[in-house]
Protein backbone atom coordinates (compact mmCIF):
# COMPACT_ATOMS: atom_id res chain seq x y z
CA UNK A 1 0.00 0.00 0.00
CA UNK A 2 1.29 3.45 -0.87
CA UNK A 3 1.79 6.03 1.87
CA UNK A 4 -0.76 8.50 0.50
CA UNK A 5 -3.56 5.94 0.17
CA UNK A 6 -6.39 6.41 2.66
CA UNK A 7 -7.64 3.34 4.44
CA UNK A 8 -10.68 3.86 6.67
CA UNK A 9 -10.49 2.60 10.22
CA UNK A 10 -12.59 -0.55 10.67
CA UNK A 11 -15.80 -0.03 12.60
CA UNK A 12 -15.29 -3.11 14.77
CA UNK A 13 -12.23 -4.33 16.59
CA UNK A 14 -11.03 -7.83 15.73
CA UNK A 15 -12.53 -9.19 18.95
CA UNK A 16 -15.87 -7.42 18.50
CA UNK A 17 -16.10 -8.94 15.02
CA UNK A 18 -15.32 -12.41 16.43
CA UNK A 19 -18.02 -12.02 19.08
CA UNK A 20 -20.67 -10.96 16.55
CA UNK A 21 -19.68 -13.70 14.09
CA UNK A 22 -20.35 -16.23 16.85
CA UNK A 23 -23.49 -14.42 17.95
CA UNK A 24 -25.06 -14.80 14.51
CA UNK A 25 -24.29 -18.52 14.71
CA UNK A 26 -26.77 -18.59 17.61
CA UNK A 27 -24.07 -19.04 20.27
CA UNK A 28 -24.85 -17.99 23.82
CA UNK A 29 -22.74 -15.52 25.76
CA UNK A 30 -21.36 -18.45 27.76
CA UNK A 31 -20.46 -20.41 24.60
CA UNK A 32 -18.81 -17.36 23.01
CA UNK A 33 -16.77 -16.75 26.16
CA UNK A 34 -15.60 -20.36 26.27
CA UNK A 35 -14.68 -20.44 22.58
CA UNK A 36 -12.72 -17.16 22.74
CA UNK A 37 -11.18 -17.87 26.17
CA UNK A 38 -12.60 -14.68 27.68
CA UNK A 39 -15.12 -14.02 30.45
CA UNK A 40 -18.85 -13.71 29.86
CA UNK A 41 -18.60 -10.13 31.17
CA UNK A 42 -16.03 -9.33 28.47
CA UNK A 43 -18.34 -10.78 25.80
CA UNK A 44 -21.17 -8.57 27.09
CA UNK A 45 -18.81 -5.56 27.08
CA UNK A 46 -17.86 -6.18 23.43
CA UNK A 47 -21.54 -6.43 22.49
CA UNK A 48 -22.38 -3.29 24.48
CA UNK A 49 -19.49 -1.32 22.96
CA UNK A 50 -20.58 -2.30 19.46
CA UNK A 51 -24.20 -1.35 20.16
CA UNK A 52 -23.00 2.03 21.43
CA UNK A 53 -20.86 2.62 18.30
CA UNK A 54 -23.87 1.84 16.12
CA UNK A 55 -26.36 3.81 18.20
CA UNK A 56 -28.72 0.85 18.57
CA UNK A 57 -30.51 -0.57 21.60
CA UNK A 58 -30.31 -4.32 21.14
CA UNK A 59 -28.20 -7.18 19.84
CA UNK A 60 -30.63 -7.89 17.01
CA UNK A 61 -30.54 -4.28 15.88
CA UNK A 62 -26.74 -4.35 16.04
CA UNK A 63 -26.61 -7.45 13.83
CA UNK A 64 -29.01 -5.90 11.30
CA UNK A 65 -26.98 -2.70 11.18
CA UNK A 66 -23.66 -4.55 10.85
CA UNK A 67 -25.04 -6.57 7.94
CA UNK A 68 -26.43 -3.40 6.33
CA UNK A 69 -23.04 -1.71 6.63
CA UNK A 70 -21.27 -4.74 5.16
CA UNK A 71 -19.35 -5.34 8.39
CA UNK A 72 -20.90 -8.75 9.02
CA UNK A 73 -22.00 -11.61 6.76
CA UNK A 74 -24.79 -13.97 7.74
Automatic annotation (TrEMBL):
Any keyword Transcription regulation? yes
Report the superkingdom from the record: Bacteria
HTH luxR-type domain segment(s): 5-70
Q: Does the keyword Flavoprotein apply?
A: no
Entry keyword set: Capsid protein, DNA-binding, Transcription, Transcription regulation, Virion
Under PROSITE patterns, the record lists: HTH_LUXR_1, HTH_LUXR_2
How is this protein named in the record? LuxR family transcriptional regulator of spore coat protein
The beginning of the lineage is: Bacteria, Bacillati, Bacillota, Bacilli, Bacillales
Amino acid sequence: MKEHEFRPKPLLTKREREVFELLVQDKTTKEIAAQLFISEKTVRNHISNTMQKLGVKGRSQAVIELVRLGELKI
